[in-house]
Amino acid sequence: MLRFYVLAFFVLLSLNGVASPRYSDPDGCLSCHAYQGLDYIDAEGVLRSATIDRSHYASSLHGSVPCKDCHRNTVDYPHKVENTEVDCSESCHIEEPSEGVKYSHDVIHDEMDKSVHAGGWYKGLTGGNRLEEIATEQDPSCRRCHSNTLYIAETQLANFKEAFDHAETECGNCHQGKAWMGQFGGHILRRLIGRRWNNQENNQMCIDCHGDVDKMRDVEQEDPDTLAKHPPSDRFIHSAASYAKTLHGRLIADGSEYGASCIDCHAPAGWKHEIRSYLDPLSASHIEQLPETCGQSNCHTYSKKAINSGFTETDMHDLSLLGLTAFTNPFVDDDLQQSPWFWSSWPLLLIGVVFMIGSLIWWLFFRTTKKILPVVGGDRFERVMIGRKPKAARKKAAVKKTLKPPVATEVKTQLAENGTDEKGA
Amino acid sequence: MYRFMLKTFTKIYGGRHGYVSLLVMMLLTLLSGVSRAESLYLQAINSVALSDEQLQASIKKVEEHQPVSLRGELEVPPFHKRTSVNAALDNSFCTICHQSPPHTKSIRSRTFMNMHTQYIACETCHFRPKNQPLSYQWQDTRDASVVRAVPKLFRQLMAQKPADTATSVGAVAAKNPFFKISPFYQQQAIALHRDSVFAQETQKIWQQEGAIKKKATRRAIIHAPLSEKGPKCQACHRDGDVLLDLTQLGATAYQADKIQNNIVAQFFSRYTDAEQRIRIMNLLR
Lengths: 425, 285
Known about the structure:
The complex is a heterodimer of chains A (425) and B (285).
Chain A: H1 2-14, H2 30-33, E1 39-41, E2 47-49, H3 54-58, H4 67-70, E3 76-77, E4 91-95, E5 102-104, H5 106-114, H6 130-136, H7 142-145, H8 157-172, H9 178-192, H10 199-210, H11 213-217, E6 221-222, E7 229-230, H12 234-237, H13 239-245, H14 247-253, H15 262-266, H16 290-294, H17 334-337, H18 340-366, H19 378-386, H20 391-403, H21 407-418
Antiparallel strand pairs in A: 1-2, 4-5, 6-7
Helix pairs in contact in A: 1-9, 8-9
Chain B: H1 2-13, H2 15-37, H3 40-46, H4 52-64, H5 110-116, H6 122-126, E1 135-140, E2 145-146, E3 179-185, E4 188-189, H7 197-207, H8 212-223, H9 253-260, H10 263-268, E5 278-279, H11 280-283
Antiparallel strand pairs in B: 1-2, 1-3, 3-4
Helix pairs in contact in B: 1-2, 4-8
């Protein structure tokens, strides 16, 4: 209970700019590191800082983690650089609430190891080797994408405050024990208010690297089967730009909750870090996996049917999309010339024109004429839909009607002349 | 004006003595006028007589100088949240050449010394002439004006009483980062301002291509009155006779006590040589 409320208190205060109560620092690191301005510029021109914002750290994702759970071998002062190295895959002293298992990021490290980003640093991380990492490693490290941000993101703070107010009354109706609330309250509440990053933020993480064309040109790729190294294709280099032109990319850029993000296609399962090459049969973006990938989360569920497999062949990184903003002379475009859709559209267009002209002629000259044209099925329409007799039969009936004299007229004439009818009545 | 003064002095001192007295008075006035125009530091610079050895050493330093440019934000961001770096040292004469923050060499103390640049001017530690007593006051480094000494200028600790520490939720003072404790001599600021004539001349010399000897000479005379190493921590962080009179600088008794008995300064007092490492758990005992 205490831990839950201390966490909530720190989170609510962290954005209000007021000093917070002393944070528990079992190793005494903050005796020095809490001072502001502990900066210096190293020989490479990088500004280094040893200052830790106490209240921010207490409210961060790692706020419950003592310093030495990550910086395990820091025992002397001045610190030996090698002793301050961090290994993100090591376990820490935080225990998972349900079963008491010590928390660790090693499951994510396992996914990363199988992914195309396997070379990214996950251990040996210090404040001083960021430049070295940039210069020597093309794959992202853990810290490349993940900084120690607040436990409750600023965008979620309003929801958190509302949920926090009701936590005791809502959950506490059944879970009356303070021990349970203290152990599980923060854990559940954090997840109840929704995921940390929206699609835009997820995509931005990828675009930070993949949107840099020069950086992507320097990437060395490895064939998953032969392990041979090769330079990247233009399709890879411009993947961020081509995706941005698709409907998915535009929806997300526009802030819509719809649209498939990079991760939705490339690593939808597990911990979202197992991004494999699209040539890898186990990859979510492999051609054989696409029906399942596109059909996830009730999106394009019809793609799971074999008859709709053509849908999954839509290229989300088609280079021709990049020319859409400069659509000056489309008919000389090679892709257009080779497209079966382009050539099949011409006869369809011709037929369409014929129908339009025919409709125009009818409208101008024949719309007031009640004329049945058997040649275009008018006769059959009348017989089947309206139930009239065929034309020939109607003609015949009309002729009979004309030849037969009307009986009533003759009788009246005789009565008028003789006073009797032909029967003598 | 001259005739009036001559007549007055003649009346006071009589005859020939009047002329002499007037001359002495004018000379003294001129001298005092000159001394009021220049800070003690600038006077010291102007009176430096460089030896050949000093000049050669300075030439060597200039030739071996490798400028280090501060890099912008890196692609790999820092893991822990950083506060923004302010430009509070940008008005200092020293940072025309030196980086901000300036200290880089001592692994043990560079970050702590740079921390002090937030509220102590460079000259306070590095300009300590012998036999010339200096006073220290808060100064606004933007216009060299004196700032009234008040407790809120001591930004690190705001609690007034020990009992308040555990429950204090008072905001850290929104202290102006340009206010620094600066040295004064006879009520005149010692620190040179970046906009001063000497500073601007120095900048122009340093920006010239080549001109090694000229740069070296300038560099040598600037550093001659200064001490490379500042005072030890205990010069301020102890009871008794200290370099800075914290009470006079506006600190409350509680603030002064906390500063003078600062635990980190006590850590540092245990080191006996530059390369020594001490176990943290021993430091914290």
